[in-house]
Amino acid sequence: MTSAQSNRSIWRREVVAWCGYDWANSGYTTLMITVFAVYIQRTVFTTEQSGNTGAVVWAWTVAVSMLIGALLSPVLGAFADARAGKRMGLALTAIGGSASCMAMALAPPGQVWLVTGCLLLANVCLELSLTFYNGFLPEIATEREMNGVSAAGMGWGYLGGGIWLLLAMLLLGYGPAMGWGDGTRMLRICIFLTGVWWLLFTLPGILILRDRTRQKQATTFLRAGKVAFGDVVDTLKQLRRHRTLLLFLVGFLFYNDGLQTVVSQSSTFALQELKFTDRELVSVVLMVQFVAMPGAILTGWVADKLGSKLTLQLCLVVWVGLLGSAWFVETGTAYWFMAFGVAFVLGGTQAVSRAIMGILTPQQQEARYFGFFNLSGKATSFMGTFVFGLIVAMTGSSRLAIVNLLVFFVIGLLVVSLIDLKRGIAERDCPLIR
């Protein structure tokens, strides 16, 4: 790395555009666990008519979307590498996700399976878009910048999600008083505008980001598809030589299962166990968004000082403590304290994980390997949400369901402790190392 490269500011145009997609999709992910969850569980599937059906359908819809994303991400990542198509893939999935949000809002609430189908499609588009988006990270950031750029993206995401959630909260609170419609209409308007937000703030990334890898010889869709499937098989073989990367993906598979399920199902815990009102739920998630931003940035700074591996271990230790305390949360105040702790390590855990993946990823194969990163992140996450919904269906207790996630963080912590990043970098640069 030259001196000029090491001293350049990370706030280049392409980095800002890349961070913009975290801002864009976080508007969706933030409202998904608040407004969308309330709409599905209390309007589309009303408690009086269906008991816990809304909570179960919510959990299983998220689970199925994660499973589909896990299965398609490696193939589409390889396809993007074959066609130098990360930019096009990002555009198509982001537009598809935003359109699904709008369709979900326009569908009558009584059309329960149509609404649920739109939610499923939006989630799948989000999962797939992250494969292309994350694949840009090693192309726009040097190894020295990886932690800072990854953390900046997470920080921007939490800030953007928080701002949109705040605006949605104002719309939900004051819309009916201004004669714009009842609470159900306001929820649907927020869902529609979430699609607009997602599309609008994706545009800078689509316009500015460019694939730096060259297109391979496959020029037709069929030939590129064959190359993509061949690359998937080849990547599986290569992972045996990148043993540190493979070990990290295994650890990530476990602890990210717990993380993703906490994020998607914590609203169910608040709604079902603590009887939060819609406004109380939005308020606590709003706090999470604004605390998670400095948490992600601080974690990036700590990772630069202490190292990525140790920082990730510290984050996972905090997660273990938080999940263990969930069993004793009986009041709204206690939930707020737990949510504050989750917020502080949430973005940091994701940012440092993405940075480690970027450090260990072979050059010119970013989308392909980040497809497997997405696969590792979602391969069991669908099981976490599925089991969460199953426990709720069988026992009616989301408290028991969420505490059971503790085991995933413990296993993830143990696996991460075995990782040797220096060896992983050597394997990346010289893949024949055994």
Summarize the structure.
With 434 residues, the chain is an all-alpha fold. Helices cover 82% and strands 0% of the residues.
Record the SSE blueprint.
Blueprint: H1 3-7, H2 13-44, H3 47-50, H4 53-83, H5 86-106, H6 112-135, H7 137-140, H8 146-174, H9 183-208, H10 221-239, H11 243-272, H12 278-306, H13 308-325, H14 332-360, H15 366-378, H16 381-395, H17 398-403, H18 406-416, H19 421-429
What report would you give on this structure?
There is one protein chain. It is built from 19 helices and no strands. The radius of gyration is 21 Å and the shape is globular. The longest helix has 32 residues, at 13-44. 82% of the residues lie in helices and 0% in strands. The chain has one domain (11-210, 217-429): Growth Hormone, Chain: A. The protein has 434 residues and is an all-alpha fold. Helix 2 (13-44) runs antiparallel to helix 4, helix 4 packs antiparallel against helix 15 and helix 13 (308-325) runs antiparallel to helix 18. It starts with a helix and ends in a 5-residue tail after the last helix. The chain has helices at 3-7, 13-44, 47-50, 53-83, 86-106, 112-135, 137-140, 146-174, 183-208, 221-239, 243-272, 278-306, 308-325, 332-360, 366-378, 381-395, 398-403, 406-416, 421-429.
